[in-house]
Amino acid sequence: MSVCGELNSHPMTQNRDPKHTTPAVSSSSILVWLMAAIAIIFLVLPLLSLVIRSVQNRAWETLPEAGILSAIGLSLFSTAITLIVTIIFGTPLAYVLARRRFPFKWLISVLVELPIVLPPAVAGLALLITFGRRGVLGPVLMEIGISLPFTLAAVIMAQTFVAAPFYIRAASVGFQAVPHEVEDAARVDGAGGWSLFWFVTLPLSFRPLTAGLILCWARALGEFGATILFAGSLQGRTQTMPLLIYNVIERDIDAAIWTGLILIMLALFALLLSQWLARSMQDENRLQ
């Protein structure tokens, strides 16, 4: 037997099953996992700390005494009105941006989505300068007996200004994703105008619109900067849950923690529902 044959027949030199080999862990892989773990801790630990602190202090016992119920009611009512206003005016705007061509369309699209990245304090200042008593439209509104700052209407306007772009962007993408062939076939069958929109375009884009509406509601629920500048923080009138946290954190930390937990639970629910809609849309697209 030759030397090569002996080496090949030796147990240590026989081919090994690649399934039983252990991949070497590189230093770069360890670094990536370490950085990811730090990011997870940074993002999750504050939320867990809030929950743990609320349990330790039994923060829920302050619920009836800190004006939380009025803040919750005002937040839910104002955000509901915000959603209605956004649907009424945002849906036509999203459809126009998705389906129509006109001069400076790109510029209008950028300006419409600008509040998404605009600092909330700047948004509130812009609303105050526009609709305040000494603002651009303030004198005109005062002449007809309308005063908007530091009212419930100001809360709704602030929420709509910062939250509606989330819905408009999602709705525009949804309208763009509707196959033109389906609409053309509906036109051949006699559909057109409002009937085409209500019975063909809108049902096909319902999930993107719903996902955008959920994000819009979540953003409106957590709005703070624009609201406090334009509407103030008057308990029972303009004080939403984020404003309540700001006002009571120094004198009643338990009330602030409890309100924060409510906002976290509502935001978590909205995020989970939005992700479920996104996954269902992806699954439907793969099936197609």
List the helices and strands and how they pair.
Layout: H1 3-9, H2 27-57, H3 68-99, H4 105-117, H5 120-131, H6 138-143, H7 152-177, H8 180-188, H9 194-204, H10 206-221, H11 225-230, H12 241-248, H13 253-287
Helix pairs in contact: 2-13, 3-7, 3-10, 4-7, 5-7, 7-10, 10-13, 12-13
Describe this protein's structure.
With 288 residues, the protein is an all-alpha fold. It folds into 2 domains: 27-57; 63-287, MetI-like fold, CATH 1.10.3720.10. It has 13 helices and no strands. The longest helix has 35 residues, at 253-287. It is globular, with a radius of gyration of 27 Å.
Q: Give the uncertain stretches in residue-range form.
A: none
- The share of residues in helices is over 70%
End-to-end Cα distance:
62 Å
CATH topology of the largest domain: MetI-like fold
Q: CATH class of the largest domain, anyone? A: Mainly Alpha
Morphology: globular
What CATH architecture of the largest domain do you see?
Answer: Orthogonal Bundle
